[in-house]
Amino acid sequence: MGYPHPIHPKETPVLSKHFGEVEARPYAGWVERGGYVALKKALTMAPDDITSEVKASGLRGRGGAGFPTGLKWSFMPKEDGKPHYLCCNADESEPGTFKDREILRWTPHALIEGCAIAQLAIRAETCYIYIRGEFTEPYHILQRAVDEAYANGVLGANAFGSGRRIDIVVHRGAGAYICGEETAMMNSIEGRRGNPRIKPPFPAVAGLFGKPTTINNVETLAAVPAIINQGAAWYAKLSLSSPKSTGTKLISVCGHVQRPGTYEITMGLPMKELIYDLCGGMRPGRTLKAVIPGGSSVPIMTPEEVENCPTDYEGIVANGSMLGSGGMIVMDDTTDIVHVAMRLAKFYAHESCAQCTNCREGTAWTARILERMLAGEGKESDLGLLLDLAENMTGKTICVLSDSCAAPVVSGIQKFRPDFDRHLNVERPLKTAGV
Amino acid sequence: MSDELVSVTIDGLPLQVPEGTMIIEAAKQAGVLVPHYCYHPSLPSPAVCRMCLVEVEKAPKLMPSCVTAVAEGQVVHINSPAAKSARQGVLEFLLINHPLDCPICDQAGECELQDFVFQEGRSGSRYDDYPKRYAPVEDFGTDVLYVPNRCILCTRCVRFMEDVAQDGVLEVYQRGDRSYIGMEPAHKLEHPWSGNVVDLCPVGSLISKDFLHRARAWDLDKTASVCPGCTQGCNMTVDTRDSTVVRLRPRPNLDVNRHFMCDAGRADYRWMNRGDRVEAPLHQDGGKLHACDWDTALDEMAALIRASDGSVVLLASGRAPCEALGWTMRLAGNNVRAAAIKVPIGPEAPIGAIPNLALRAERAPNLDGARMLGVSTDWLAAINAVKGAELVIVLDAELDDADIAALSGATHLIHFATAVEPRLAHADFVVPIATMAEEQGVFVNRDNRAQRFLPAKSAPGMARSAWWVASQVWRRGGEGRRAPGTASEAFGSLAPFDGLTYRDLGLGGRVVATSPAGAAR
Questions:
Q1: How do residues A3-37 score in pLDDT, each as one tens digit?
Q2: In what order do the strands lie in the sheet with A85-90?
Q3: CATH number for the domain running over B101-112+122-273
Q4: Which helix H or strand E contains B312, and what residues bound it?
Q5: Contact B465, B433 (CB under 8 A)
Q6: Which class is domain A248-332?
Q7: Which band of pLDDT confidence, cut at 50, 70 and 90, is reported for residue A426?
Q8: pLDDT band at residue A400, thresholds of 50, 70 and 90?
């Protein structure tokens, strides 16, 4: 199937195989498609064996940071007598990112199965799926799937008759971008204001309700059943470039391409093929101007950087940006980068949790300067000021929201200087008194 | 915190501090104050103001010194160019929406934003052409006004109410640069300790209605004192302007009140400024009280006491310090029939999260001192003993109608008074004494901690400390008696405090043993 477009030959459908198939949503349909085999297998495995398997697969966090998943799980204490928690981060709110939404909409049971396996690995009886508040349809689908899983004995006090307790709670967010930050998410689940926490202590030591906690992205967890089913070696081989980037990645492409949508590629597929083959390239008569490859928080790439860039963690870093969440925004030559930077800065200014001074004031100030520039009121000194503010907003705060605001501004100025200059060197009409 | 010491170097100074100490506290020991806003030693640290970022060698980025513990061999640079420029950046961010209304702001002069901007901020603003954030002043309750424009969102007030007072009515509302400190409409800052948010606020955002526009900070004289409100004995600072007390604020003492003081204690200063004071010794002359000089009054009182071999009753205020109680007791000698202080009782109001800190039910600061000096708290027994006593000495006690009625039957009456009391016009002597704001003295709190208070203003007219008057009369009562020359001596010569001096007590107080035999030395 594939959604919204039929599966392209260059795609590798692992997670997205059943996107668009309404029959894959209910429990029965999912079991028909090979669902819950992996969970049954995992129930017979020792927790550390599951972790080792995931470690060996090379699976890395799909939420943005790309931290090795197995390693993250291995940070969890073993038998410490405390309750452990798994949090599934389904608060997908990064501008340009809409990959988890498709998993939640089409294959909710894949996520539930992934969560359950991860829970076994980290010895967590309870998993909280923190789903973005605006995801109304995905929420209802997911909640129905969880209810079904309970009704069919997948979840509950006696999962598949194994005597193990596996609980999953779906928790809806209230519309704050910052609650996608893992520690803010924990605060939000606890009923507090969604402010990021200071690390240390790290979640594996004191996370949700002060107990050892692991937080994983939807896509990460949804990939786990396939790894358990088909083995770490199979997954690790799914790579076209760096052996450090394995498996498949959902890339949600939006912007000025002919076929925007969510695509599943093998790690390392050249970005050019992704844009021009899978997405059908630019609109007629237009040329590529810029790409934000991994959600709005990463630096902007130029066409030259895109030219030979493999779509994987290392390749994009080598080409001046980051894979991030895999939310790709493609822009053609009609785009004004100053406008892009302003739009993003306004978003971050709106979403700053207001804890850290640098972020609270810096994001709003940055947005104002860019707005002023767009209005033709920019000053010569504004570029220096923007870079100065960006410097004061990078690496100085509790979480990376202010860094994310600074990144497109800095990369925009560095790589698309003519756009900024155009706004600074405008001929201003003489204002008359109107007499 | 363990006893293990770790070696760190802070701004070039090698230092040994206990393991687990935060860098910001270690720096204080090195004599460096790391500029900060959200950090407060009595509150949990959220590390949100980002002002205390310091450079730690080998760390990838600047570290918030309020939540970064020292580590063996750590080298910290507080005044390195990177740390300084980070602070300058934060100050600039804080100032873009801060109104520069210092000329009408109560905090000016004791404002941490002012101080640190003056110390290391930029001289000009690059935030031109934009209006500053504006929101109207809000009434937060009891004594607190919120001026949102000045707020730097350090959240000290939020954390105090939430974590210390445990009455989390304050919250940060909204997000981004639109955020502000607020309350649910149904809530008010009504906690009996909520006034502390005014002190905690590093800027002029939370201000006291009572102190509003009363004085400029730099015009204030500050005197170390002890709150006379209850047996807790919170350390406080008396702020005076031109010899008028305008404000009481808590003075840090980690063993007694940490950094806090209750609203009742804070508000209770107007009596220190009373105008209707007795300003000269008064004695009976032709059936009326007339002013006389000290020598006459002292001689006559000595004569009265010598003549009255019978019993003496001492009725003292619960606020009488040790010196006054001890020396009036000594003056009464062996003839004391009854001696009591009056202890008003009120509701107890604990602060919440700090054990052993509360506004106590017994509203007498020197209750334990009185006990040590043999003065009881059985006021009624003492009043009943008035009848048939030869001499009654009233030591500035707060008298109700029943007390006055009982005193009308006293044979002789010496009234040590701060304020004029027309209903005791029949007293043989009215002795003008200083209030606690005008003299040195010692209160012993409920944990047997002897704590000094210092004179914040001058006593009116000829008023003297009660201990001085009592000791001078006592000296005249027998050969070879020597009166103490200083308040410290007057204190040390009392049996329970045998030989202790004010210097021994320091300004943080000292626990004294309950029995004279075990008196700490």
A1: 889 999 999 999 999 999 999 999 999 999 999 99
A2: A167-172, A126-131, A85-90, A213-217
A3: 3.30.70.20
A4: strand B312-317
A5: yes
A6: alpha beta
A7: confident
A8: very high
Domain B5-92 -> CATH class? alpha beta
Domain covering A22-237 assigned CATH 3.30.420.10 in the classification: no
Contact residues, chain B, for A193 at CB < 8 Å? 171-172
Q: Which CATH class is domain B282-518?
A: alpha beta
The DSSP letter of residue B411 is S
- The pTM is what? 0.93
Instruction: State the Cα–Cα distance between residues B268 and B210, nearest whole angstrom.
Output: 11
The model's pLDDT over B205-240, given as tens digits with 9 standing for 90+, comes to 999 999 999 999 999 999 999 999 999 999 999 999
Domain ranges of chain B: 5-92, 101-112+122-273, 282-518
For residue A401 the two structure tokens come to: 């929201």
Distance CA B24, CA B45 (A): 11
Q: Can you give the pLDDT at residue A429?
A: 67
Strand partners, A428: none
Among the partner residues A368, A392, A398, nearest to B89 by beta-carbon distance? A392
With CB atoms and an 8 Å threshold, state whether B89 touches A391.
yes
Name the residue ranges covered by the structural domains of chain A: 22-237, 248-332, 337-424
| Contact: B61, A395; criterion CB under 8 Å | yes
Is residue B20 within 8 A of residue B3, CB to CB? The reply is: no
The matching CATH number, chosen from 3.50.30.10, 2.40.50.430, 3.30.360.10, 1.20.1440.230, for A337-424 is 1.20.1440.230
Q: pLDDT tens digit string along A260-269?
A: 999 999 999 9
ipTM: 0.92
**Is there a contact between B93 and A377 if contact means CB atoms under 8 Å apart?**
no
